[in-house]
Amino acid sequence: MASLPELKLKKQIIRKMSENKPILHPKKNKKEKINVEFIYKSFVDNIESVHLYFKKFGSLAIGEDETIISEKEKFHKEFLSELTSDLEKLKEEKENDVIQDYDSEKIFRKFAGKINKKNKISPKNFEILSRSSFLMLNNYFEYLLTDLLTYYYNKFKSSLNEKEFKLSLKELNEYETIEEVNKFLILKEVETILVEKTFDQLLSHFEEKLTISLERDLINWDKIIEFRERRHLIVHNSSIVNKKYISRTKNPFNFKIGEIIHIDNTYFINALKEFKLAGQLLLFNCWGNWDKENIDSALYEIMIQTFEDLKVKNYETVIKTCKYSEKITARNEQQEDIIFRVNINKAIALKKLKNNAELSKTLKNIQVGTASPIFKIAFQILNDNHNGLIDNFKKAIILDEINIDYYLEWPIFDFVRDNEELHFELLETFKNN
Predict the structure, then answer these.
(1) Where is average pLDDT lowest: 59-73, 116-130, 175-189, 348-362?
(2) What DSSP letter does each residue of 162-192 carry, written as one string?
(3) Rounded to whole angstroms, how far apart are CA atoms 233 and 229?
(4) Of 36, 156, 243, 368, which sits 20 to 30 A from 165 (CA to CA)?
(5) pTM of the predicted protein model
(6) Same-domain pairing of 361 and 374
(7) Both 142 and 234 in a single domain?
(8) Does a structural domain hold residue 74?
(9) Full domain range(s) for residue 152
């Protein structure tokens, strides 16, 4: 069962959805159609916003913590130096039997006062920032599941035809149309699902009731479960490990009961990548099942996301997303072109990771015989074949397939920019064409 704060949060989310107000983009045009694509873009925007927030303020938080630590070290050093000096003077006065300006009681009062005046701020800025960012990641993933359930039951109302609902006359009189009553009953159903089901049961609901694959070969749901349980520790148990956490997660980090958990940079980035991958693949499956008429847009987003992940060096995420796309059969030329580009992105990621065996297999499935010059260039670079590369660059420039900005941005050109001589020749090509 979910906790009371979680139930309140879930009810607020569902209530907003029932009012036809997009919960993640409240400033959007109210008339904008809500579909899986809309939910997808909201989710991606939210994940990227959390990442930006974490990157922007993370270094500032670390800087503040380092300043606090430095000031404390300086204080302790000066404190110890002054205390040692006073004790030495006290010793000298006692040995010389003179009037004691430095008796032990005065020294104690003097330094006790200094300690009390010392700023007791702890270096926990980064810890606070990382925990808040981590909580936002968890919340946005939960919002995603809520959005998808609400959208499904509103679009496929017949799926609840056999469901029995209790509705009082008072409740019925609150609505003017059957459509309003339908929305209210769907609201109650989604609320019941979220309140009564554990996370495992909620996943099973997507898989068994909504026939949405969880892509268990690509998504590490055990990690997602651990992220959620760690979130529960932060919110409900002062970040202290308890028996419930250990039993539900199988304790992959070998924590002991009573130990305090932390969210460091590496852990947060891993959580962000796993949440993003899980959310995207879940969304793509819902997109393909519920909004089939808009499948071209889904494929386009797969291409865009693999490219964006390449730029930020999330190569493992690129490979998993591309492996997902291999399950899709192209139904027209546009889809074939997009899948072709996705395969190129996969090959780039494999080359970056120096996975030569898998790269070789992937390149065998890429045919560039009739492809445009830009893709022949990509294929040559991926195969470390630079013969005729300059000529293909000239053709691509003439056809307006590439410009200097594109050359400096696309990750595949990292492999030739590292070659100083070749890089210079290619730059000259842009100048002369």
Answers:
(1) 59-73
(2) T------HHHHTT-SSHHHHHHHHHHHHHHH
(3) 6
(4) 36
(5) 0.76
(6) no
(7) yes
(8) yes
(9) 4-59+126-278
